[in-house]
Amino acid sequence: MRKRMKQLSITVLTLVMSLFGATSAFAYDGWADSIPTAYSLNGPISGVSTTINGSDDVDWFSWTNDTGKSVNFVASLQSPAGKNYDLHAVTYTGSSYLSNGAATDHGAGAIDSMGGNLPAGWTMYFQVRGQTGSDYSTSLTYNINFSYS
After folding, report:
1. Which residues contact 68 (CB under 8 A, 6 or more apart)?
2. 16-48 confidence digits (pLDDT tens)
3. Who's near 35: CB < 8 A, 6+ residues apart?
4. N or C, which end of the chain has less CB nearby within 10 Å?
């Protein structure tokens, strides 16, 4: 029970911090830098905020469809002002990885989004990275949102 309360407290704190624009405690190079270390979204989720810390930094997020049915999803990325980040997606079917491509790019500081259908049991991976070598910041946060229906 104590462990569950601690996990709930961390989740609530992270959500509150993201709502008020605070940098996530998870924002550092070496965090969620690959598919095996992707940050699991317990979707739907709104407001995971963190940073891209260098020209070679990427962040991965994942969501597994454990609803028992096929669902439609939407993922969106809000780049920080003056920076242009890209959102890419990969689907894992349980036996192979399939590229879903990139969200439509709307430029620096804008919101890029993508959606689709995800069968039951499959996992979506979302990658966030700077579009160019100068699109990163150790202090300006981006925001990723995920929902399904």
Report:
1. 120
2. 333 333 334 344 556 788 999 999 988 667 778
3. 60, 62, 90, 92, 97, 125
4. N
